[in-house]
Specification:
Largest sheet: 3 strands, mixed
Radius of gyration: 16 Å
Strand order of the largest sheet: 3-6-7
Shape: globular
Helix content: 25-40%
Number of strands: 7
Length: 149
């Protein structure tokens, strides 16, 4: 299990074994025969790298509708050491370590992919007249970035 980045006694060692440039691609399409992973993500925290964010309390209640857009996906190179800051709620930047980027990046990529997969499953089965499949919902901002202002 992993939950909060760096907490002892959790499975973060498995995440550290994944090469930094493969964190997000591997998190979105895990293969346990390539790298073993913790079996559970206990999403009790907020996970943020740069402007990308996933938080259970910020999840909209209407994601399983035909109209709601998918979540914006983080870039595939998150975890590589390129994104060593996080944008906080007040739009101020805060520095983070390479380890924090890698750990939060892994969970952020895994949960974003899982959420979008679940939304697509719903849309493919219940939205006969079409559905919003755009990846434009910014969870940190709490809005669709494609919506008219």
């Amino acid at each position: 299990m992993v939950s909060s980045a760096g907490v002892g006694g959790e499975g973060w060692g498995f995440i550290h074994n994944i090469p930094s440039n493969q964190i997000c691609p591997f998190a979105t399409h895990p293969d346990h025969s390539t790298y073993p992973l913790p079996s559970v993500i206990h999403y009790c925290q907020r996970y943020a790298v740069d402007r990308y964010f996933w938080g259970k309390r910020k999840m909209p209640h209407d994601i399983f509708t035909c109209e709601h857009p998918l979540l914006i996906e983080p870039p595939m190179d998150i975890g590589s050491g390129k994104y060593l800051q996080v944008t906080e709620g007040n739009n101020k930047k805060k520095e983070i370590s390479e380890d924090k980027e890698k750990m939060d990046g892994f969970v952020l990529c895994a949960l974003t992919a899982a959420t979008n997969d679940a939304m697509m499953y719903f849309k493919n089965r219940h939205c006969e007249g079409g559905a919003n499949r755009e990846k434009t919902y910014d969870m940190r901002a709490g809005k669709d970035t494609a919506a008219k202002k």
